[in-house]
Write a structure and sequence with these properties.
The complex is a heterodimer.
Chain A: E1 2-7, E2 16-22, E3 25-30, H1 35-46, E4 49-50, E5 53-59, E6 65-70, E7 74-75, H2 79-86, E8 90-92, E9 100-102, E10 112-114
Parallel strand pairs in A: 5-8
Antiparallel strand pairs in A: 1-2, 2-3, 4-7, 5-6, 6-10, 9-10
Chain B: E1 6-9, H1 13-24, E2 30-33, E3 49-51, H2 53-56, E4 60-61, H3 62-75, E5 80-81, E6 84-89, E7 95-99, E8 103-107, E9 111-114, E10 118-120, E11 136-138, H4 139-149, E12 156-160, H5 164-175, E13 179-184, H6 194-201, E14 208-209, E15 212-218, E16 225-232, E17 235-236, E18 242-245, E19 248-251, E20 255-257, H7 260-265, E21 289-291, H8 302-322, E22 331-336, E23 339-343, E24 346-347, E25 357-364, E26 368-377, E27 380-390, E28 396-401, H9 402-406, E29 414-420
Parallel strand pairs in B: 1-2, 1-9, 2-5, 9-21, 11-19, 12-13, 12-19, 13-14, 22-29
Antiparallel strand pairs in B: 3-4, 6-7, 7-8, 10-20, 15-16, 16-17, 16-18, 22-24, 23-25, 25-28, 26-27, 26-29
The chains are: A alpha+beta, B alpha/beta.
The structure holds flavin-adenine dinucleotide and iron/sulfur cluster.
Chain lengths: 125, 421
């Protein structure tokens, strides 16, 4: 039995987790405060994923940029592909919260969605 | 002069949660004043996720978390004024504010909630020798530039200070194509959350050098490089210098509550938190003036900000409804053996809901293992809980049953301390 120590990134509490591995299979997880901690440890040790957040440019909006995120987590090794796919994206205002900004980002099957609403600029730029 | 029952200064998460709670407690005549062009406070520039897991059972980004509260404020029809800066708060609670729309105006509310948040420690206070070339930013300024203006302030970056904003900016700038070479931290432990070290540094192989500081900055017009050295007993150790080429230095050296207004009003300020001292109702030394959120003490979890602010909103509502101050004993809360401060700083037993609880939040002064948190009423222990690890970067919370305090009618003070487990 092998012991692995991890920090749960599920939320800012950052619980110290201990996972017991046998033949690369997770046997048990301890140290978690809630059940997300166990889920995290199992995932992190088999196929780690992350939610990616960034911003994209807005045209004709009250704000210059809109914040976005992956609608769910994507494989950790595709973070940079995801960011690259967002480089030249520009979205016209108005934008509603949760609006799909880029479907199926970098072939992950996950959409990029807006995390903020942006109204059209009153000046009409 | 316009009259309000309640005026809330600041429209960040603290101000919004306080307003919603006060309205739900029956206060109709209230107003939020916000100097920015939108509600939401610092959360508008915190585009990363990790907010609100405990409040909404969902992992939200900063703008989404703020959005939930803004929606409630709008649904409840709570009035707010944007682009409105509060210039002065007087001891009699007169508020002087200014906006382009209304010019200079005064308000005379029955109660005030301070929710002004905090600001970053300025670099002048950091004592780094050398010139002051361009390319030095606080981490929060860099965050604003990247996330709100879409401008990357540099390509080769060194970060001094391992506070959360610095860690988050290490990842953000890496993703945007900058090369973050190192994060240096003066203390032997990080001031940021562990999850941020994992996700923002470890994920990208960015080294964190504890007990290190910047001893020299090169470049006259623009930063060209910096020198780090190891620190022992507060002094750089000769011979440990390391040079890094960089065009940008980010400073992430902590936050201080924004209390110019409170000070001018004569609100008593704690020298430890730089925030007001408050009683169990989150009321400051001026009756009818309450405080919550980062203006009171720096929080790392916005969920606790909302929770604390909602309590302040309810207490302000109760005061407005009864129009009466609670009389009776005031028990100061002493901090000992590793406990740096508590919020509140005192408790009036008469003000407690006998069937309810009172929340004590505090921070420790170093990293501790295998301790227990103990609360004493006089010299009698009334609460104890084991904690395997405590660190200054993480706020501790204790929920005390009011009964435990009310059952000790003769004690003159409470004490919060750490003991060996
Ligand atoms: C970079 C960063 C990252 C963070 N990351 C996380 C995280 O991952 N997870 C998490 O849970 N929490 C996180 N936090 C913490 C959380 O965001 C804060 O605790 C929270 O925003 C504090 O809320 P507040 O309302 O007290 O202050 P603020 O959000 O700062 O709001 C204060 C408001 O008051 C206004 N104001 C100030 N003075 C005046 C005046 N004189 N007149 C009118 N208005 C005024 C300001 O404009 C501002 O809008 C983070 C904080 C920062 C800074
Ligand atoms: S185990 Fe649960 S409480 Fe602990 S860090 Fe993970 S998500 Fe947060």
């Amino acid at each position: 039995m092998k012991q692995v120590h991890l920090i749960c990134i599920g939320c800012p509490l950052g619980c110290p987790l201990t996972a017991e591995l046998e033949d690369r299979e997770v046997r048990s997880v301890t140290g978690n405060t809630c059940k997300n901690g166990e889920k995290y440890a199992r995932k992190e040790l088999t196929h780690p994923t992350r939610i990616v957040t960034s911003t994209v440019r807005v045209s004709g909006g009250e704000l210059a940029m809109v914040s976005v995120k992956t609608a769910s987590d994507i494989p950790k090794d595709q973070i940079f592909d995801c960011i690259h796919a967002l480089k030249d994206v520009e979205v016209p205002a108005p934008i509603s919260m949760g609006q799909v900004i880029l479907p199926n980002v970098a072939g992950t099957g996950v959409d990029i969605v807006a995390t903020k609403a942006v109204r059209r600029s009153r000046a009409g730029s | 002069m316009q009259n309000y029952d309640l005026v809330i200064i600041g429209g960040g998460p603290a101000g919004l949660a306080a307003a919603v709670a006060a309205r739900n407690a029956g206060i109709e005549n209230l107003l939020i004043l916000e100097r920015d062009r939108e509600l939401g406070g610092i959360l508008n520039q915190c585009i990363h996720n990790g907010f609100g897991l405990h409040t909404f059972r969902e992992e939200l980004t900063g703008p989404e978390y703020a959005g939930r509260f803004i929606e409630q404020v709008q649904t409840l029809g709570i009035p707010y004024k944007l682009n409105t800066m509060v210039l002065d708060l007087a001891a009699d609670k007169t508020i002087t504010a200014m906006s382009r729309e209304d010019g200079l105006f005064r308000l005379q509310p029955k109660a005030v909630i301070l929710a002004m948040g905090c600001r970053e420690r300025p670099r002048g206070a950091l004592n780094i020798p050398g010139y002051r070339p361009a390319g030095i930013y606080t981490a929060g300024t860099a965050q604003r530039l990247v996330n709100m203006e879409g401008f990357l302030p540099g390509r080769k970056v060194v970060i001094l200070g391992s506070g959360d904003i610095g860690l988050i900016m290490a990842r953000r700038m890496t993703l945007e194509g900058a090369q973050v070479q190192v994060v240096a931290e003066l203390m032997p432990y990080s001031g940021g959350l562990k999850r941020n070290i994992v996700q923002c540094l470890d994920d990208f192989g960015i080294p964190l050098k504890l007990s290190h500081t910047v001893v020299d900055i090169q470049g006259r017009e623009r930063v060209e490089g910096i020198t780090l050295a190891r620190v022992e007993n507060g002094k750089p150790v000769p011979g440990t210098e390391e040079h890094y080429d960089c065009d940008t230095l980010l400073l992430s050296c902590g936050l201080i509550p924004e209390n110019e207004l409170s000070r001018a009003a004569g609100v008593a300020i704690s020298p430890v938190t730089n925030g007001p001292t408050v009683n169990e109702s989150l009321e400051t030394s001026i009756p009818g003036v309450f405080a919550a959120g980062n203006v009171l003490h720096v929080h790392d979890l916005v969920d606790y900000v909302s929770e604390e602010a909602a309590a302040a909103g309810r207490h302000a509502a109760a005061l407005i409804r009864t129009g009466q101050q609670v009389s009776g004993r005031t028990l100061p809360i002493r901090c000992r053996d590793g406990v740096r401060y508590t919020v509140p700083t005192s408790i009036r037993p008469e003000a407690l809901d006998p069937d309810g609880t009172v929340t004590l939040r505090f921070r420790v002064d170093g990293v501790y293992r295998d301790k227990r948190i103990v609360v004493l009423a006089g010299s009698q222990p009334i609460f104890s809980r084991k904690r395997p690890v405590l660190a200054p970067g993480e706020m501790e919370t204790v929920q005390l049953k009011s009964r435990l305090i009310l059952d000790c009618p003769d004690v003159g003070e409470l004490t919060v301390k750490l003991e060996d487990a």
